[in-house]
Design brief:
The complex is a heterodimer of chains A (about 300) and B (about 290). With about 300 residues, chain A is an alpha/beta fold. Chain A is built from ten helices and twelve strands. Chain B contains ten helices and eleven strands. Chain B is elongated. Chain B starts with a strand and ends in an 8-residue tail after the last helix. The chains are: A alpha/beta (about 300), B alpha/beta (about 290). Chains A and B meet through helix 4, helix 6, helix 7 and helix 9 of A and helix 4, helix 6, helix 7 and helix 9 of B.
Chain lengths: ~300, ~290
């Protein structure tokens, strides 16, 4: 089983629509994960019935007992998350959104006025789609702990993939290069970066490829909307080549794509786009096999 | 007034909207700051081309243990909510990448041998683009702690001036940090099921934070905007602007230009949006 993560740096370049298309092309031997847990969209493209949702609890929130609190303000000064404020008259109020449940306020409180409640951070489930099971979640907006939830989904999906003897584990990653991305890419066999020929996408792609290098992950690039700007396409191709990263394919822009997505179908239903996406998937599959082989070789070399 | 431009879904046009609002406000002679707090992937500088006047490396404090002083009591491990401290028989092992820098372990350490050392998380840049004050944050690649940098950028906004904040996508820690101190929120969306799904979540976050939000519909003709408009009407969320897809806009964005310089109708559309954002608020706090 090979784990492929689809990421981008910049949002909106096509991660989710490519992941869905790859799942269809992977031929029913696939397990899917939506690791963009605070804006999870893969389930919108892949119909199927969900198992009953499981609660995801993570972390805790402080509670200040207004009877015991004298408003001394020690906790306000100690909190590094700016979650506590002094309100009139001599009362401390807590902002749930800023609280990280660390417990420092409880340590400094002379009146023992702080207690903690568990935080319901979201829910997750497994959907039975036409292409294979999809592990997906919804984080409560503002709940935090997204990296931890991504790790949980990946662990679940790996178990599923092993049980089903699936050939592919496809991960639809989050945008950015931060904590949830770290959780989504760690230990994968190939990082596929979907980009587009704009300065923003290129700027963010460079940061993403730097992250991949730091995590020692094999990475490759798919250029989406490649015909939008020829000069931009040249810049992306040059930047990718300069890093020694393989460009797996180019997919043209077609305004029909967002219309099809709005209608609930995907990239593979748009004729001019379909062939390019099919070629991309073939390149991903070939590259993932090779990445694995070279990793195994490296392992052997290291063992020797 | 601090206006935060957020979205839920990525790539809907936050930077397009926020850079133009700030630029046109400066053209009107207003004292305005553009603050890019999408610190993982900041892009505003590509379009505003600021002259950077100051750079500041931002640090957070992480625990550090001098060799040979720990008694291995494990009190810090029991306290840490982030599994960043692993107890050993006569010492502890600190995993800095898991640490949220709350400072608690140092407070509870009985022999007081744990101390804190500064750790760099990223760079804050201050500068000017014409009449516009420019701020952005750029987290170091591989650094998991983005929120302290977001807070640091926001701290540098002068009170009493107009600030347009370019927020990160999503509805998690980084977006929550970006919304802190906001007066109003503008959510940029697109008429696809993805855009609508993530807009719902972003709106929920705004409501949890007690912030009034309006919506901008970008590329309104690419997809189907009927479900989106029905949702916004039912939720009584005002549509502050809506515009069509124009290949000219895409070309300007692809060249790293402010599209409003090249596309007159777009400049007009953002002028109207700016009027709506600066106007006294009707009750949007539904």
């Amino acid at each position: 089983m090979k784990q492929i993560v689809v990421v981008s740096g910049k949002g909106g370049t096509g991660k989710t629509s490519f992941t869905a298309a790859f799942a269809e092309l992977a031929g029913r031997s696939v397990v899917l994960v939506d690791a963009d847990v605070d804006a999870a969209n893969l389930a919108l493209l892949l119909d199927g019935s969900d198992e009953p949702p499981r609660e995801y609890q993570a972390g805790r929130l402080a509670r200040i007992d207004p009877v015991r609190c004298t408003g001394c303000g020690l906790c306000v000064d100690a909190c590094r998350f700016d979650a506590l404020h002094l309100a009139e008259p001599h009362r401390v109020v807590l902002q749930d959104l800023a609280c990280e449940g660390c417990g420092v306020c409880a340590v400094v409180c002379p009146e023992d006025a702080v207690s903690f409640v568990p935080q319901r951070a979201g829910q997750w489930t497994v959907r039975d789609t036409a292409f294979g099971p999809l592990v997906h979640a919804e984080l409560v907006p503002g709940a935090g702990n997204s990296g931890k939830l991504v790790a949980l989904l990946r662990e679940t999906s790996r178990g599923l993939a092993e049980r089903l003897a699936a050939s592919w584990l496809l991960i639809d990653g989050p945008p950015g290069i931060g904590c949830p991305v770290h959780a989504a890419v760690t230990g994968t066999d190939l990082l596929v970066a979907v980009t587009e020929p704009t300065p923003s996408a290129l700027h963010d792609l460079e940061r993403l490829l730097e992250l991949a290098a730091r995590f020692r992950l094999p990475a490759a690039v798919v250029l989406n909307k490649a015909d939008l700007d020829p000069a931009g396409t040249d810049l992306v191709e040059a930047a990718v080549a300069a890093r020694g990263v393989e460009l797996l394919g180019r997919v043209p822009f077609d305004p029909e794509v967002p219309r099809r997505l709005a209608a609930g179908t995907g990239l593979l239903t748009v004729p001019g786009v379909r062939d390019a996406v099919v070629a991309c998937w073939a390149a991903v599959a070939r590259r993932a096999g090779r990445a694995n082989a070279s990793a195994a070789e490296e392992g052997r070399d290291a063992a020797v | 007034m601090r206006l935060v431009v957020a979205s839920g879904k990525g790539g809907t046009g936050k930077t397009l909207v926020s850079t133009h609002l700030a630029w046109l406000a400066a053209e009107r002679g207003l004292d305005v700051t553009y603050a890019d707090v999408d610190v993982e992937t900041p892009n505003g500088h590509l379009f505003l081309a600021p002259v950077v006047e100051r750079e500041h490396r931002h640090t957070v404090l992480l625990p550090s243990l001098p060799f040979g002083h720990c008694t291995g009591c494990g009190v810090c491990h029991d306290f840490c909510q982030y599994n960043a401290i692993l107890p050993l028989p006569d010492s502890v092992l600190i995993f800095p990448e898991l640490c949220h820098n709350c400072g608690g372990c140092v407070r509870v350490c009985p022999p007081a041998v744990l101390s804190e050392v500064p750790h760099e998380v990223g760079t804050v840049r201050e500068g000017r683009a014409g009449n516009l004050r420019f701020l952005d944050g750029r987290v170091d690649v591989g650094e998991p702690r983005a929120t302290p940098l977001i807070q640091e950028v926001l701290r540098r906004i002068d009170a009493g001036t107009l600030a347009v904040v370019d927020a990160p996508p999503g509805t998690s820690c980084n977006t929550t940090a970006a919304l802190s101190g906001a007066d109003r929120v503008l959510l940029v969306t697109e008429p696809t099921p993805f855009g609508l799904h993530d807009l719902r979540l972003a709106l929920q976050l705004c409501r949890t934070a007690g912030l009034p939000a309006g919506v901008v519909i970008n590329r309104a003709d690419l997809g189907d905007d009927r479900p989106l408009r029905a949702f916004l009407e039912a939720e009584r969320v005002p549509v502050r602007a809506a515009w069509r897809y124009d290949p000219e806009l895409a070309v300007a964005v692809a060249r790293g230009e402010l599209a409003g310089r090249r596309v007159p109708w777009f400049r007009d559309a953002v002028e109207h949006l700016l009027d709506a954002c600066l106007a006294p608020q009707e009750d949007g706090r539904s």
